[in-house]
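Reply to dn_fold:

You asked what the input looked like. This is it:
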Amino acid sequence: MKNSWAFILGFSVIIAFGLWGWFFQQSRKVQQTVRVVGYGTEEFKSDIVKWSVSFSERVSLNGTQDGYLTMAGKLEKFQALWEETGIKTSEFKVFPVNVNREYGQNGHVGYTLDQRVYIVSGDIEKVEQLAIDPKLFVNGGVIFDNSTMEFFSSEIEEIKKQLLGKATQNAYERAEEITSTTHLNVDKLISARAGVFQITEPYSTEVAGYGIHNTSSARKNIKVTVSAEFTLK
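and this is what came back:
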């Protein structure tokens, strides 16, 4: 009986050392991989515009009360004129009147009151035309000090996800091209790291390490890179 247990124990030790040796040899094998950088780019058109405008009024030292009344009248005119355009908005934001001191050679000479309004809409072409040619407001007695447009896409997150897939596929194709003259084939993706998104106006070469999100153009180009590593077989 003792001999049987000794035989079983000895046999188990041999198997254990054999398995340990096999796993050790496997761990010593260098896994062949290839690292590449994939690239994805796509052009898209914005479907949201944000138009920001501001108007102001300069008053004397004792004219702030009249200034507030004048600014209220300008805002009322602006809102009435906007209603005439018939442009649908998802947001119409009016900011409080801001008061800044004016100085001259003799010190404090008066105040400048200014107010900012922005409109968010999906009617890009209509808003863009109105911003380029604001005679409707000019003729109505509302002169803008500043007028800026920003363009956005409600589908930007979906566009980013699709572009990451394209960049990863491009990385795989580049890996295949690299190994095309060897006896090895691209196998599995073992790591991937996406770079920052560069969203610019079309045909722009501008890039930034922290990424870019240009809002000045309705048509945009989005770019991204993916650093990927594949095993070879």
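The beta strands are 33-45, 48-60, 91-94, 98-104, 107-121, 146-152, 186-194, 198-200, 212-213, 219-232.
Hope that clears it up.
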